[in-house]
């Protein structure tokens, strides 16, 4: 029989308990009257200048932060933001002593150890001093030890994909590197000291987190420094806080996939190197009647079945499978482009992460129409790189048979690799269609999504928003948790 202990709340030794006199540790302290959370909120919003900066936000260096480590002048940094916590001191339920442990330094770790959930951003909004002038994770640059090349090395201090995580642009003597590290982005931005050739060679050592750039110099010789820092050089920000950066690309081929969809192959200039991680998208930008129009697209590989690269120097080419809507805003314009025409493309974006796929054994992909595009690379990745995945199943919804893209390739793959299965569903099937008919519904998913014993499952959904929303709901109704489902959305 289980002994159920008698409950008391807060439990003995709980962090929720007020500390008995003389006892320290992770307990709450008894606050002076008039110092409750509600009192703090009132005080914070009273219109006083809580930072001494009259609302101005500044960039705080580590040296500056260190100067504010006293009880009567106390700044701390939480997740890259610096707050003046001096006025909050008497209101802190953990007490002054605890808060002072983070004085004049980065308090994120201490803060998280005690109460990661505390909503400090809204509590300390009026105490915000500014953003930390972040030092790079670690950058070794300025190595001019060869007379003929500039070598720059970025150490990310964490593993990165073998295929790379950096987008590099070298144009007009300006070097811009942006490395995607989870949802963070590191940027290196320099005006190079002297003239260089237009091309960059990039090498990535994934397991040690090293990105190495080699740029041939125009004139051999030793430089005093690699270059002058430009805007956001050495910054480490959340990717969503960074503005989109576009570079020029050229349409080099267009291959019809069906009656309304083609694969557009875009080539970046020789100074640009970009690898779009699986599941991320890029934005294309062009002028439509004097207005700039931007739309997202998810790169695919050249083909579902691996092909030998035609020209290895064009390793950075992007393949975009795009459906042209005759009455659309952007795609008719794209469709009028000729081979050799230019357009602008952004770096990779999007919240998809491969992390939840670790240890997954059964991957289910539910796609409608061009929602197939993120699935194409996921299929390849699951079969080639993700060893734990024993089964990858795609359920693809289209209107008519002629709308199915890359069907013969998918059938070939399913015939040659038993870990991959594909089923097509048509909403407007022709006579004699042997496959499934209709729109997404519960019984269809019940048959498709299984959860064998001991399996770890993951479901990805992509299509028009109405399809995605409904499908996600149906998948959740089948008992799949939020962590087991990813929906690709705009
Ligand atoms: C993250 C993401 C990734 C994507 N990846 C791809 C991809 O890889 N390939 C791809 O082909 N597409 C992709 N898309 C879709 C793509 O971004 C564009 O939406 C698509 O190309 C249509 O653009 P358009 O400007 O030509 O058409 P739009 O002007 O957007 O029109 C498209 C269709 O919708 C109709 N329409 C427009 N507005 C309305 C309205 N208010 N009510 C009803 N109907 C309307 C139009 O008549 C037309 O038939 C992706 C979208 C997202 C969000
Ligand atoms: C800088 C911003 C901080 C804010 C806004 C803040 C806010 C709070 C709040 C609201 C509580 C009460 C939690 C509850 O009721 O559950 C609390 C408790 C506490 N805080 Fe902080 N805190 C900050 C920093 C820190 C730091 C840096 C430390 C440690 C070094 C710390 C240690 C504690 C402790 C020990 C408690 C009591 C135990 C607990 O409630 O879990 N706090 N803090």
Automatic annotation (TrEMBL):
GO terms for cellular component: endoplasmic reticulum. Residues 1-29 are annotated as: Disordered. Keywords: Heme, Iron, Metal-binding, Oxidoreductase. It comes from the Eukaryota. InterPro entries: Cbr1-like_FAD-bd_dom, Cyt_B5-like_heme/steroid-bd, Cyt_B5-like_heme/steroid_sf, Cyt_B5_heme-BS, Cytochrome_b5/Flavoprotein_Rdt, FAD-bd_FR_type, FNR_nucleotide-bd, OxRdtase_FAD/NAD-bd. Residues 1-17 have a biased composition (Polar residues). Residues 244-355 form the FAD-binding FR-type domain. GO terms for molecular function: cytochrome-b5 reductase activity, acting on NAD(P)H; heme binding; metal ion binding. GO terms for biological process: superoxide metabolic process. Residues 57-133 form the Cytochrome b5 heme-binding domain. Belongs to the cytochrome b5 family. PANTHER family: CYTOCHROME B5 REDUCTASE 4, CYTOCHROME B5 REDUCTASE 4 FAMILY MEMBER. This is Cytochrome b5 reductase 4. The gene is LOC115553766.
């Amino acid at each position: 029989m289980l002994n159920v202990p008698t409950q008391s709340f807060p439990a003995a030794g709980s962090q929720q308990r007020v500390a008995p006199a003389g006892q320290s540790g992770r307990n709450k302290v008894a606050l002076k009257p008039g110092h409750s959370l509600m009192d703090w909120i009132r005080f914070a919003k009273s219109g006083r200048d809580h930072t001494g900066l009259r609302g101005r936000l500044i960039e705080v260096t580590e040296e500056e932060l260190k100067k504010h480590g006293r009880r009567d002048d106390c700044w701390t940094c939480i997740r890259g933001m610096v707050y003046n916590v001096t006025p909050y001191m008497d209101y802190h339920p953990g007490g002054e002593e605890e808060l002072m442990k983070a004085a004049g330094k980065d308090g994120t770790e201490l803060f998280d150890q005690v109460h990661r959930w505390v909503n400090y951003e809204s509590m300390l909004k009026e105490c915000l001093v500014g953003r930390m002038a972040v030092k790079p994770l670690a950058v070794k640059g300025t190595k001019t030890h060869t007379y003929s090349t500039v070598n720059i090395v970025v150490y990310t201090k964490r593993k990165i994909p073998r295929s790379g995580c950096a987008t590099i642009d070298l144009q007009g003597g300006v070097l811009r590197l942006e490395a995607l590290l989870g949802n963070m982005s590191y940027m290196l931005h320099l005006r190079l000291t002297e003239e260089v050739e237009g091309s960059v060679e990039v090498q990535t050592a994934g397991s040690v987190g090293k990105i190495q750039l080699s740029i041939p110099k125009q004139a051999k010789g030793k430089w005093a420094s690699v270059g002058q820092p430009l805007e956001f050089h050495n910054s480490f920000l959340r990717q969503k806080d960074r503005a989109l950066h576009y570079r020029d690309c050229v349409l080099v081929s267009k291959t019809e996939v069906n009656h309304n969809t083609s694969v557009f192959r875009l080539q970046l200039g020789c100074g640009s190197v970009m690898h779009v991680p699986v599941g991320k998208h890029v934005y294309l930008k062009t002028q439509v009647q004097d207005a700039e129009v931007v739309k997202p697209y998810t790169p695919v590989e050249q083909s579902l079945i691996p092909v030998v690269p035609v020209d290895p120097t064009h390793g950075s080419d992007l393949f975009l499978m795009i459906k042209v809507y005759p009455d659309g805003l952007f795609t008719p314009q794209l469709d009028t482009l000729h081979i050799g025409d230019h357009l602008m493309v952004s770096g990779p974006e999007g919240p998809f992460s491969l992390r939840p796929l670790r240890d997954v054994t059964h991957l289910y992909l539910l796609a409608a129409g061009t929602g197939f595009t993120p699935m194409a690379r996921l299929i390849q990745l699951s079969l080639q790189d993700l060893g734990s995945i024993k089964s990858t199943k795609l359920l693809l919804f289209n209107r008519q048979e002629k709308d199915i893209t890359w069907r013969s390739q998918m059938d070939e793959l399913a015939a040659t690799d038993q870990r991959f299965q594909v089923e097509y569903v048509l909403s407007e099937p022709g006579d004699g269609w042997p496959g499934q008919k209709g729109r997404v519904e519960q019984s269809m998913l019940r048959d498709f999504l299984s959860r064998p014993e001991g399996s770890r499952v993951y479901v990805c959904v992509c299509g028009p928003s109405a399809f995605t929303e409904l499908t996600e709901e149906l998948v959740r109704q089948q008992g799949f948790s939020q962590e087991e489902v990813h929906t690709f959305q705009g």
